[in-house]
Structure formats: C-alpha cells, structure tokens
Amino acid sequence: MKKAASIILAFVLTASCSGGDAPAPAKDAAPNAESDDIDAEINLDLWLERLEVGSRELFSAREAVVEAVGLEEGDWVGDIGAGTGLYSLLFAEEVGDDGRIFAEDIEPLFLDLITRRTHDAGVKNVTAVLGRTDDVTLPGNSVDVMFIADTYHYFDDRETIMRTIYEALKPGGLLVLVEYEISPGEDRPDYKSHVRFGKTGVISEIEYIGFEFVDEPEVEGLTENYLVRFRKPETVGADNSGAE
Ligand SMILES: C[S@@+](CC[C@H](N)C(=O)[O-])C[C@H]1O[C@@H](n2cnc3c(N)ncnc32)[C@H](O)[C@@H]1O
User: Fold this and answer.
1) What residue ranges in 41-142 does DSSP mark as E strands?
2) What is the mean pLDDT of the chain?
3) Using CA positions, which residue lies closest to atom 23 of ligand 1?
4) Does ligand 1 come within 6 angstroms of the Cβ of 154?
5) Is 180 part of any domain?
6) pLDDT exceeds cutoff 90 at 83
7) E-assigned strands of 88-232?
8) What's the domain range around 28?
9) What local confidence, expressed as pLDDT, does residue 195 receive?
10) What is the domain count for the chain?
11) CATH (domain of 210)
C-alpha cells in the first residue's frame, strides 16, 4: 500500500509540469508553457526552426536516437507527440513498406504539416492521428513500439494517457521515452526551468502503469536528455492497478 500511495503522490505532485525542448504549441496542449513569444496561432515555420535545428540535441543526435530505439522492418510504431514529424519520417524509413508509423499529436496543424511532408516526400507508411489529452486514440494491442520524445512532461494527466499507451501496445511491445534530465539543485537553462521532475520519478510512474524497465542505452550526442526503454509484459494480467 505504502509504495502505491507514494507513486500516486508522485503523479499528483508533478501533474502541473509543462514545457520541453521548446514551448508547447497550443494553449490546450500545455497550459503553463512558456509561449509568450508565440502568437495563439501556431507558426509552423517557427516550430520547424525550433525543433529541427542543430542546437537542439534531439535533432543533432537523431540518427543515434533512432538506432537506440531499435526498430525492425515491418514494425508498427506510435510516435506520440509527433510535432513536426521529425522522428516519424525517420522511423518510416526504418520500418519499410510493411511497417506503419502513427504520427499522433493533439495539435491538428502539426498533423497537417506531417501529412504534407510525407506526401511531398512520397512516404506512404505514415498516418497522422489526432489524439486527445487523455487518450492517444490508437486501437488496443496494435502497436509494436511507442516512442515519446520531449512530450511526456506536457501530459496533463500522465497516468490516464499512459494507460491508453499501454493498452495500444501489443504484449511484449516496447515503449521508448526520451526526456530532459534534471538533477536537484542543478542550474538549468531558462528554456528548461519549467521541467520539474527527473528520470527516477518518470521511471517509477511508468513502472506503476505496468511496464517493465528494459534499459537505458548510451546514445551518442545526448547529454541533456536520457533515453529509457520499457516493455509491456508478454503476459498481461500483471497487476498494474496500484493495489498491493
Ligand atoms: C516539444 S514537441 C516534441 C515533438 C517531437 N516529439 C520531437 O521531439 O521533435 C511536443 C509535442 O507534444 C505534443 N503534445 C502535447 N501534449 C500532448 C498530448 N497530451 N498528447 C499528444 N501530444 C501532445 C505537442 O503538440 C507537440 O507537438
């Protein structure tokens, strides 16, 4: 009981967090985002400049990140909080014609951008999916790999949305999470000052949902961010209710 209570508390304490490598794109996506320099309307050019720029390590180290995810030909992949489609487009190449990428986001303008980009590039295995803040809206037991980069801290209700991610993964499926790491007392750059929880808390939250921790591979070029991998158990029935 004690462990369950402390993990629930962790969810509650960190629930108001927002922010990421760049501010959230829409008010609904992240109410507390540092978006004073962005109009209510999304400026996609500005977002492309922010998310796909060499000074952002999730862009400069993208090939190493893709390698660490470890996709296989034919995989079905959920790119949750796909943004400009940076990773969806790279994953599309990795999984080949028999694979499929679900580029999921709650912001329709990003999905329009992804649809345009895939169309222009002749990429046919990416589907843009409009999710909700409490549901990734992907069918149950359908996806081999879920990828969440620079987005976990935007989730308003992480427990609820993570349960929908768990449900949509096939048994034995992989969850890969990339997040900004913070250490207590650390001096953070302004654009990260709103990220209020670190790796240990994130891992506890995800294990609480029922995922099993797999590993934290070394990713060349990632210094501010960490990448962790989890697995949905093969035999579902593991107790993830929080009760002991
Ligand atoms: C900083 S961007 C990261 C984009 C992409 N993953 C990358 O690393 O380049 C965060 C993205 O998360 C999306 N987002 C925020 N809350 C979300 C939610 N509850 N469900 C899905 N996407 C969400 C935003 O719309 C935005 O596209």
Assistant:
1) 76-80, 100-105, 126-130
2) 83
3) 81
4) yes
5) yes
6) yes
7) 100-105, 126-130, 143-149, 169-180, 212-215, 225-231
8) 2-231
9) 66
10) 1
11) 3.40.50.150
